[in-house]
From TrEMBL:
UniProt organism field: Streptomyces polygonati
Domain ABC transporter: 8-244
InterPro entries on file: AAA+_ATPase (IPR003593), ABC_transporter-like_ATP-bd (IPR003439), ABC_transporter-like_CS (IPR017871), P-loop_NTPase (IPR027417), Siderophore_ABC-ATPase (IPR051535)
Topological relation to the membrane, as annotated: Peripheral membrane protein
Family matches, as PANTHER family: IRON(3+)-HYDROXAMATE IMPORT ATP-BINDING PROTEIN FHUC
Broad class of where this protein is predominantly found: membrane
Pfam families: ABC_tran
Gene3D superfamilies found in the cross-reference section: P-loop containing nucleotide triphosphate hydrolases (3.40.50.300)
GO terms, molecular function: ATP binding
UniProt-listed CDD domains: ABC_Iron-Siderophores_B12_Hemin (cd03214)
Keywords carried by this UniProt record: ATP-binding, Cell membrane, Ion transport, Iron, Iron transport, Membrane, Nucleotide-binding, Transport
Subcellular location: Cell membrane
Protein name: ABC transporter ATP-binding protein
Length: 282
């Protein structure tokens, strides 16, 4: 960890796919031991930023720093032992079981002189138990539902045992009960193990409830960053999402709760021939 700043930062980033620029001169800092959540409308650059921070997308300009060093210049295994990533659309190899896929999370810890160990077995077992997929260990990944596969991928990311964990839409395909289970798990990793988590979420209320640090984006720019209780206002939601709303206190968590403005009633035309002025009179 650098003595004078966060472990993971992006400075002056220009992010693009070919000639299409997604973000320009983007600067972010991920607070250490935070649960940082990135929110914003579709196509605003959330996932693109996460890909750049994880070294899966090379910035067209600017630098991502991990522990004060250019992440692009660091050895792959060193990065993999420090930073784990759950991508948005992960694809498993054909014919692989759940246990085998989760076990691949231990790859950064292997070497010529260090092969599979009882500790690796324990970490894989604990990771599958934490995500509720232990009973699926012998099943083929391609036989699972979308929600089951998502939890298996999260288990693999946990098995990597990195101090920084980046999750791109980790609740995709999950029903509400499993969404809360996964977010509770993320909160425990942050609170009890001191891990730094960065997640992209679509649900603003879930983001406000779980995040300790929120980054709100629109059009490739960061419009606000800080604790949810400090930055989530009706004005910010309107600016980021173009959504009129009220922001009240969540009665369960005390965090900001976004309540969309009521839909305006639609006045229906009276039936042809109806006497609207004399309606109800004999």
């Amino acid at each position: 960890m650098t003595p004078d700043g966060p472990r993971l930062t992006g400075d002056g980033l220009t992010l693009a796919y070919g000639r299409r620029t997604i973000a320009d001169e983007l600067t972010v800092a991920i607070p250490d031991r935070s649960f940082t959540v990135i929110v914003g409308p579709n196509a605003c650059g959330k996932s693109t930023l996460l890909r750049a921070l994880s070294r899966t997308l090379k910035p067209a300009a600017g630098t991502v720093l991990l522990d004060g060093q250019d992440i692009a210049r660091l050895p792959a295994k060193r990065v993999a032992r420090t930073l784990g990533l759950l991508p948005q659309s992960a694809i498993a190899p054909d014919g692989i079981t759940v246990g085998e896929l989760v076990g691949r999370g231990r790859y950064p810890h292997q070497g010529l002189l260090r092969q599979w160990s009882p500790n690796d077995e324990r970490v894989v077992r604990d990771s599958m138990a934490a995500t509720g997929v232990a009973e699926l260990a012998d099943r083929m990944v391609d036989e699972l539902s979308g929600g089951q596969r998502q939890r298996v991928w999260i288990a693999m990311a946990l098995a990597q045992e990195t101090p920084l964990l980046l999750l791109d839409e980790p609740t995709t395909f999950l029903d509400i009960a499993h969404q809360i289970e996964i977010l509770d798990l993320c909160a425990r990793l942050h609170e009890e193990e001191g891990r730094t988590l960065v997640a992209v979420l679509h649900d603003l209320n879930q983001a406000a409830r779980y995040a300790t640090h929120l980054i709100a984006m629109r059009g490739g720019r960061v419009l606000a960053a800080g604790a949810p209780g400090e930055i989530v206002t009706a004005e910010l939601v309107r600016e980021v999402f173009q959504l009129p709303c009220r922001v009240i206190e969540d009665p369960e968590s005390g965090t900001p709760l976004v309540v969309p403005a009521a839909r305006q009633a639609v006045k229906r035309p009276a039936p042809a021939g109806a006497d609207t002025e004399g309606a109800g009179r004999p």
